[in-house]
Amino acid sequence: MRSAFIFTLFLAAAPAWADEGMWLFDDFPAAKTQAKYAFTPTQPWLDKVRLASVRLARGCSASFVSPSGLVLTNHHCAHGCIQSLSSPTDDFVTRGFNAKALPDERKCPGMEANQLVATTNVTARVQKALTGLTDQAMNDARKAEISRIEKECATSDEIRCDVVTLFGGGRYDLYRYKRFQDVRLVLAPEVGIANFGGDPDNFDFPRYCLDMTLLRVYENGKPAATPDYLPWSAEGVKDGELTFISGHPGRTRRLETIAQLEYIRDVELPKRLVRLAEMRGVLTSFAARGKEQARTSETMLLSIENTLKAYTGRHQALVDKRFFAAKVEEERSLRAKIDADPAKKKKYAPAFAAIESAMLKMRDIVDEYDASEGSRAWQSETLSAALTLVRLANEKAKPSDQRLPEYGDAKLAALKATLLAPKPYYPELEIEAMTFSLTKLRESLGVEHPLVMKVLGKDSPRTVATRMVKGTKLREVAARRNLFDADAAAIAKSTDPMIVLARAIDPDFRQVRKAYEDVVEAVVKKNAEVLASARFDAGTSTYPDATFTLRLSYGSVAPFTKRGAKVGPFTDVAGVYRRATGSDPYALPSSWMRTKPNPTTPFDFTTTNDIIGGNSGSPVIDKNGALVGLVFDGNLASLGGDFGYDGTNNRAIAVDARLMFEALDKVYDARRIVKEIRP
Questions:
Q1: 385 found inside a domain
Q2: Prior bond to 585 cis, omega within 30?
Q3: What's the CA gap between 408 and 262, in Å, rounded?
Q4: Is 472 part of any domain?
Q5: Is 464:500 a contact under the CB 8 Å cutoff?
């Protein structure tokens, strides 16, 4: 099996094979699905699936499943909303949530849903703005032109526009989204069944998770009309059947150079793994203090555990000698094609050395970058808000195309919605998280570093964190709103301790950011564009790396091999009762003990579809355009998916549509929802 994995990676720069690929909707390889599965998606089919697909602003995918704005996603994607709506006496995470009538549906603080309505290729315009420029000047001009394009597109607060970099800069597309800013919670099962098996079963299979949540988008106080939606399949899917997954994979790095992969392997991932492991320990200890501490830290802890395991898998892929040798051979093959033509060699070959030099410089500044701009708010929601407010006041005084990209006019509506969301605030957790971050700051840079001295002085990390958290008013929406429209003079007068700290550290952060952008980012982006052209010249025809933008993958329901044994593609309801022990994380909620679904109903299943983080919440669709499943995970073999695709064992894991329907009907008595999704 391992050799097949390497073979796949060797071909990463060649046309994608088997079921590999996170394809653009306007460049879907229909001939491949026709050749393998005897099905060609038509343009109307693709358009309907695209419009039925939803992106959640917090890094997940979803889909419309009714004409009245009903949205299906994962429980773990909506966990923050569910926790925000909970209280110490009414914990919806533990006991679940079920709005019995439309007025009972409750607004999720700060949640936004985006629907991709149009894409436009703007490559020529961006590249024209870069003519004759190099490195830093080119990088600045690129950002300015992108900001202008986005501003022209975002004609109202109901529209979001993003210029997306594809193929490392070989192509630029303008994505125009419809924004749904009123998103409400409709139904969520108990976390005990949504995350059944917990961390021990994470990225594994067999699984028994009902990792689903139903939301609804509203417009003008009423359920939004969503005529393009996925009908709920009654038949489900069978072993070997064709499946499509439409979603927003977060980021892959399959086209990066060996120098970049070495940096990820040797520096980036080891640093992140240590930090995540330590933070998990801090949160686990905090949760053990009591029931309320466990409740308030649960969302953060689940996220940390999931990320830690994912990064571990990525690191294991890169330290595997055979895996890395395949990536080296892949680059050697591309270089050989370039070197065979003197003109191409002169044009393209220097790009490899330039990127390598930039990554060496990144090693020199990584500690300061990670300690400042790279982890901007040091695990503090209020400090993050303060830094945003301080920067916003300064950036608004500049023309939009000269600002930091995240403060351009086209970004302000979404920024405001996020910053002013009325989310609950947990001071005790904030102190603990900020104490950890400040401790790591001092550990990373040293006691006498100017930034450390500016932040801590002679005080301990806990003393500073406690003073800041207890003294700030930014936990209140009104305080954040008052400062959102303030100018730099008003910000300068604020005595809020978080604003005072943000004012003090912002110049240091900006200095490190500028160094990174000039000596690393500018060089990498310029030369990544050069290598994109080299691949195009070499005749490569493939999909671009993932960018948290809408993609469509194809595959089929399929088993895989684990520890030498075949693992079937389906689990069933009977299996979850066999696996239940009565103790977490294998304790079934009381609702599942009172009302048991049909034991033969399929529970979760696996497919060969190519996915990555960000695909959580993606619909699994059959060739009729019907919903047959809900992606919530990948198996252990998929964890190297950042860098390559294992066609033999890489599997996406989904909740079966038949199980979701039966649970809604029999376990949760959600008759109005059942009628809505299957009239």
A1: no
A2: yes
A3: 34
A4: no
A5: no
pLDDT band at 528 (very low <50, low <70, confident <90, very high): very high
Strands (E), 87-131: 97-98, 106-107, 113-121
Average per-residue pLDDT for the chain: 94
Neighbours of 308 (CB within 10 A): 19
Q: Residue 25 phi/psi, 5° resolution? A: -65, -30
Q: What is the pLDDT of residue 10?
A: 34
And the tokens for 368? 């300061």
Q: Which of these, 614, 597, 654, lies nearest to 631 by C-alpha position? A: 654
**358 and 523 in contact (C-beta within 8 Å)?**
yes
Comparing C-alpha atoms, which of 235, 228, 263 is closest to residue 360? 263
- 381 phi and psi, to 5 degrees? -65, -40
Which residues contact residue 274 at a Cβ distance below 8 angstroms, ignoring those fewer than 6 apart?
Answer: none
Q: What is the pLDDT of residues 292-344, one digit of tens each?
A: 999 999 999 999 999 999 999 999 999 999 999 999 999 999 999 999 999 99
Distance CA 480, CA 360 (A): 40
Phi first, then psi: give them for residue 198, nearest 5 degrees: 50, -150
CA angle, residues 366, 369, 374, in degrees to nearest 5 = 115
Neighbours of 507 (CB within 10 A): 10
How many structural domains does the chain have?
A: 1
386 domain residue, yes or no: no
Contact by Cβ (8 Å): 656, 638: no
Average pLDDT rounded to a whole number, residues 440-464: 95
Residue 105 DSSP SS3: coil
The answer to whether position 11 is within a domain reads no
Residue 437: the pLDDT is: 95
Dist. CA 302–CA 92, nearest whole Å: 16
SS3 73: strand
Rounded Cα gap, residues 93 and 91, in angstroms: 5
pLDDT in tens, 550-608: 999 999 999 999 999 999 999 999 999 999 999 999 999 999 999 999 999 999 999 99
Distance CA 290, CA 448 (A): 37
Q: Is 3 left (phi over 0), alpha (psi -120 to 50) or beta?
A: alpha
CATH code assigned at 39 = 2.40.10.120
Flag whether pLDDT at 1 surpasses 60: no
DSSP 644: -
Helix (H, G, I), strand (E, B) or coil at 522: helix
Domain extent, residue 62, equals 17-112+181-251+551-677
580 close to 544: Cβ distance less than 8 angstroms: no
> Model confidence over 361-377: pLDDT tens digits?
999 999 999 999 887 66
390-394-400-404 Cα dihedral, nearest 10 degrees: -60
For the chain, give me the number of helices (H) and strands (E)?
Answer: 28, 20
The 10 Å CB-count burial string (b at 16+, else e) for 215-243 is bbbbeeeebbebeebbebbeebbeeebbb
- Can you list the positions of beta strands (E) in 189-309? 213-219, 222-223, 242-247
pLDDT, residue 377, reads: 64
* 3 state DSSP class of 663: helix
